[in-house]
Amino acid sequence: MSVAVVGMRNGVVDQKIVNMLTTALSKGNYFTVIEYHAVDRVIAEHRLQLSDIIDAQTAVTVGRLLKSQLIVKGEIVVQKGQIIGIEGILVARFVTITSQVLDARTGKTILVVSEQGRSYAGGLPVDVTSGGERRRDVLGIKRTEEDMFNSAIRDAADKVAVSIIRAVYGKR
Predict the structure, then answer these.
(1) Which of 75, 76, 74, 62 is nearest to 2 (CA)?
(2) Using CA of residue 155, residue 168, residue 111, residue 27, what is the dihedral sign?
(3) Which of 21, 63, 105, 164 has the largest count of CB atoms under 10 Å?
(4) pLDDT in tens, 142-157
(5) Helix (H) or strand (E) holding 40
(6) 165 by DSSP, 3-state: which?
């Protein structure tokens, strides 16, 4: 079964989602994933607009041009309110990717999947006594916020891909 992953917007985060969903869906040989460069080229050549809500006709057109059976698009929600921090140290990052799977022949939505990705600083939050004062700190590896963000996206993309595979192939 062939699948094309499309972006919702033209931005760095959107491209990360497309790349990570493409990679995740390529694992295990469940799908023939059309390279995102081919998808972008067809969209640009035919001046198709992929807005927040891809309409049925655009999905059918993209599917026909790419010889794809499914179109997958994903959107990210950064859950800023759920970042856990200790005295300014970022400990965890949470993001959610919601992905819509469309039948490229009919343009109808056949599945909507929403999965949360998590990333941790790699350290352990502990109470530390230093100089007679108790304070919270993180012991272990401290990662940059960008690393944690990318890791959370990757985690969510992997979970979305597994959910799509299970839904399409009935695997548990």
Answers:
(1) 62
(2) positive
(3) 21
(4) 677 788 888 889 999 9
(5) helix 36-45
(6) helix
**List of residues 6+ apart from 36 with CB closer than 8 A:** 5, 7, 18, 19, 22
Cβ atoms within 10 A of the Cβ of 7, count?
A: 22
- 39-88 tens-digit pLDDT: 878 777 776 665 545 667 777 888 888 899 999 988 887 765 445 555 55
- Residue 18 structural domain: 2-169
Q: Which helix (H) or strand (E) holds 120?
A: strand 109-120
CATH code: domain of residue 29: 3.40.50.10610
Closest CA to 78 of 156, 139, 15, 4: 156
Tally of domains within the chain: 1
